Amino acid sequence: MASIIKKRKKGRFYYYAVKSQRVNGKPRIVWQKYLGTVEGIVEKIESTKPPPPKETVLWNFGGVTALLGITQQLGLMEIINRQLPKRNQGPTTGHYLILAALNRALEPCSKVQIGHWYQDTVLQRLWGFKPEAFSSQRFWDQMSLCGEEALHKIEGDLLGRIMEVFHVDSQCLLYDTTNFFTFIDTYNDRSNLAQRGNSKAKRHDLRQVGLALIVSRSFGIPLFHRVYPGNVNDQKVFSGVISEMVKTYRRLMEAVEDVTLVFDKGCSSYDNLDRLQDEKVHFVAALGIQCAGQLLEEPLEKFKISSKLAGVRSYRTSGEFFGHERTMVVSYSESFFAKQLAGVTNRMVKCERQLKSLSGQLEKHRQGKIRGRKPTSDGVREKIKEILNFQFMKDLFTVEVTEAEPVQVNYRLNHDYFSWLTEHRLGKTVLVSDQESWTDDEIISAYRGQDEVEKAFRHLKNIDFLHWQPAYHWTDQKLKVHGFYCVLGLTLAALARKSVVEAGIDMTIEKLLGELEEIKETAVIYPPGTLAHRKDHITLARMTSLQKKIASILNIAQFQIEVEG
């Protein structure tokens, strides 16, 4: 064992490191190393002390590695490159599509900026490509290679891996549609997908594209999608994708015996339900008022109180409907009634106020207090039609317009119709299903699962994460590729959330992605030519206890690479 001793020479002390051991039974120094004087030792220590850091660098780590880990579990890179091979030179098509999906999920930006975003993440360290490899032109070149058929095959292969690796509950599939407005010019004839239609964002002045989506009832994981023209109604879209949906349905049947497709009243029609019946696809669907017939007239006294769903009652019958024997369930919900009643009364107040204002303006014209062209009866009727252009309002108000000048307006509320609404219409949903063995509660609960697909659409319209808009593309082919990687980003995020929730941490996708994005990789940079050791200078920034748990569940530590100096 070594020790330090001092020796006095010419009045000064000098220090040595020595090793001693017994030689012939007596302690002897067998090795020594000269250290110097106290002053000399201190000077050497000060000279070898690492200098202060020059700078620190941060990279986005948590979100990128969490979702990248999901892609590796799924073998997504191999699935994409199997369908879209390219020369073994630079990034593969899989790299481009995965980068686009990660970017859309975490920090959506244009293809012009995506190379800079890539540089600010640990992907550059993990993949080893220069940011210039992901320039906008190279991105567009790769997107041009992504044919629609290849994307469909990728989605099909990915579906199989999702079921195999993550064991998603697919007994209930939820279908719905939405649309996204674009900034594609009116005179741009390169896109047939972007059309003017009934914009759900109320941007009727802009062209839009539609998205049809199927998600799982548990965790809202996308399993199928199609991009379609923005001016096609829901029934036609549903009819157009039934054949493709049936293929997805059959594939899921390999993992789950009993799969049921759930969709809203906009897709229900004789032909659509008939085709599903012919394909032996189980379904639960809502019906519009025009299809409900006398079912809405049944008094609530005949409705059975649910034992599992609070504030819910149901009326069940069966019979021939649209040419087939089917089960019909009318669901009545107190909370839905209160919500609808509040909406109707609020709209009534607004319509009454506008009708009163219109009547007042006509009176001022009659008295000469307002100058300008005299109102005509036809013009007033058009204005009234605009005021009452909301559900139920045309029947709730009876409006009379005088033909003779001066034009006058008289209106009254139709109390009989309002009573009919509250007694027979509000709070009710009419459902049809071929699942004869299901209870009322099971059919109603399946339909209520539609909220998961609505959540998926809200995620895609979130301004912070998973944002679809703006698309930055002007042709149909690239809009379809854009739709593919946007939905892919949502799929990866939903699977990450599934892993976290099943591990005991219940949180929304937005909350999860927000926590992951705060996990940064940090590099401490020292001046060149110094003796500072570089081995341990790259690490993760300090994490909260919640972030540590999430990081452990998603195993992002596998992407921490030790950098040697």
Structural description of this entry:
It is built from 20 helices and 17 strands. 33% of the residues are buried. The mean pLDDT is 88. Among the domains are: 47 residues, no CATH class; 193 residues, 2-Layer Sandwich (Nucleotidyltransferase, domain 5); 89 residues, no CATH class. A hairpin with a 7-residue loop joins strand 13 and strand 14. It is 43% helix and 21% strand. Helix 2 packs across helix 18, helix 3 runs antiparallel to helix 8 and helix 5 crosses helix 7. It has 565 residues and is of the alpha+beta class. The protein is elongated, with a radius of gyration of 34 Å. The strands form 4 sheets. It has a 9-stranded mixed β-sheet, sandwiched between helices. It has a 3-stranded antiparallel β-sheet with strand order 1-2-3. It has a 3-stranded antiparallel β-sheet with strand order 4-16-17.
Task: Write down the overall geometry.
Answer: elongated
Report the biggest beta sheet as strand number plus sense, adding barrel if it closes.
Answer: 9 strands, mixed
Helix content: 40-55%
CATH homologous superfamily of the domain at 156-286 and 439-500, by name? Ribonuclease H-like superfamily/Ribonuclease H
Distance between the termini: 32 Å
Rg for CA atoms: 34 Å
Structural class by secondary-structure content = alpha+beta
Number of strands: 17
Strand composition percent: 15-25%
Text of the CATH class of the domain at 156-286 and 439-500 = Alpha Beta
Question: How would you state the average pLDDT, rounded?
Answer: 88
Number of helices: 20
What topology, given as strand order, has the largest sheet? 7-6-5-8-9-15-12-11-10
Q: Report low-confidence residues grouped into runs of 5 or more.
A: none
Going by CATH, the architecture of the domain at 156-286 and 439-500 would be 2-Layer Sandwich
The CATH topology of the domain at 156-286 and 439-500 comes to Nucleotidyltransferase, domain 5
